[in-house]
Write a structure and sequence with these properties.
Elements (H helix, E strand, L loop, with lengths): L7 H34 L58 E5 L4 H12 L3 E6 L3 H13 L4 E5 L5 H15 L4 E4 L15 H22 L8 E5 L3 H4 L5 H21 L5 E7 L13 H5 L17 H8 L1 H4 L6 E4 L6
Parallel strand pairs: 1-2, 1-4, 2-3, 4-5, 5-6, 6-7
Helix pairs in contact: 2-3, 2-9, 4-5, 5-7
């Protein structure tokens, strides 16, 4: 038998396959040229943060920290390197004019920086704190220097009776409550789960999550339409921290609590959001870590340094103000210095 002739369709299919192979080879060659060019440019890895830390703001922030440890709960005035909270380049524009805010853990660190900027934006502020009396007085002076009224109340947010009494006192003293900032926290490293005793666990749980729930419940009768609650979460809730199992768990709970409460209060016109900071230079870590570890705090962050409180506080203003965040509720706002914290 004589071999059959190829049909036009088979001829066309052969040409198509040959054309596809040629196109694929051309693409592979193009990709090899790109690879060679990239190698020549030395673009294989991103550049590490400079030894002085990434500086992206209006002034240089400290990257070298003292090797210093503090006794709990940690007094800001005892720190050799004072945290920066004044935000000298921030100009207020009345975003919180006439509002009344209650800030837990407001004596130092993020809480102090938030209290000051709230006052600069026109708010009166109540500061709740444990027993760091000198720090709380300094925060009040800073708020008053901005033109706001300030009261300081000492107590333990683990105690529901204190939360209720404090909320009532703030409402009476300031004439209402428009913003609650849940910021008080307890942190203590523990490198093995077997060493996490019940007292340590309960201290963290009762302060960091029960305290947030209790304070929100206590202020709720005084909050009206347009009010807001802002919780302080953490990058640990997003990435975990092997030596802070209990702290990480509470921060994850805070993020979930934020979303759930936002959904519950939406119909009442009350917004609930959360700021998730990365490493921040406050008394919290020097009152936890050993001095050599404190000196390295924040070095492994994307920016190669910890944030200063004044770099966090504008995020709280943004979420608190009905002018800037009227359509934002249930958000977790990461302020971590980079995508990986």
């Amino acid at each position: 038998m004589t071999p059959s002739k190829k049909t036009p369709a088979r001829k066309a299919a052969g040409k198509s396959a040959s054309s596809a192979r040629a196109g694929a080879e051309a693409t592979a060659e193009r990709q090899r040229r790109m690879q060679a060019k990239t190698k020549q440019q030395g673009a294989g890895k991103p550049k590490p943060a400079p030894s002085g830390g990434v500086q992206a703001g209006t002034r240089r922030q400290p990257a070298k920290l003292p090797a210093q440890s503090l006794k709990k709960p940690g007094n800001e005035h005892d720190l050799q390197l004072q945290p920066r909270y004044l935000a000298a380049d921030y100009r207020g524009s009345g975003k919180l004019q006439g509002m009344r805010a209650l800030v837990t853990g407001g004596d130092s660190g993020i809480g102090r920086a938030v209290a000051l900027l709230f006052a600069r934006e026109g708010a009166d502020v109540a500061v709740l704190y444990l027993d760091e009396h000198e720090d709380a007085e300094a925060t009040c002076r800073a708020v008053e220097d901005e033109g706001g009224r300030c009261i300081a109340i000492s107590g333990d947010v683990r105690d529901p009776a204190f939360c209720n009494a404090a909320a009532a006192r703030v409402n009476e003293a300031l004439g209402g409550i428009d913003v609650l900032v849940n910021n008080a926290a307890f942190q203590l490293h523990c490198h093995r789960l077997e060493d996490l005793d019940d007292a340590h666990l309960q201290e963290t749980l009762q302060t960091n999550i029960a305290g947030y729930v209790q304070m929100a419940r206590a202020v709720l009768p005084y909050l009206g339409e347009g009010a807001s609650i802002i919780n302080t979460g953490s990058e640990t809730a997003l990435f975990g921290s092997p030596s802070l199992l209990d702290y990480t768990a509470t921060k994850g709970a805070i993020h979930a609590f934020t979303k759930a409460l936002a959904a519950q209060l939406l119909g009442r016109g009350i917004r609930v959001n959360c700021v998730a900071p990365g490493p921040v230079w406050t008394p919290l870590n020097p009152a936890d870590k050993q001095a050599p570890d404190v000196a390295r705090f924040g070095k492994d962050s994307d920016m190669g340094r910890p944030a200063q409180p004044e770099e966090l506080s504008p995020a709280y203003v943004f979420l608190a103000s009905p002018v800037t965040a009227s359509y934002i509720s249930g958000a977790i706002l990461p302020v971590m210095g980079g995508p990986r914290g």
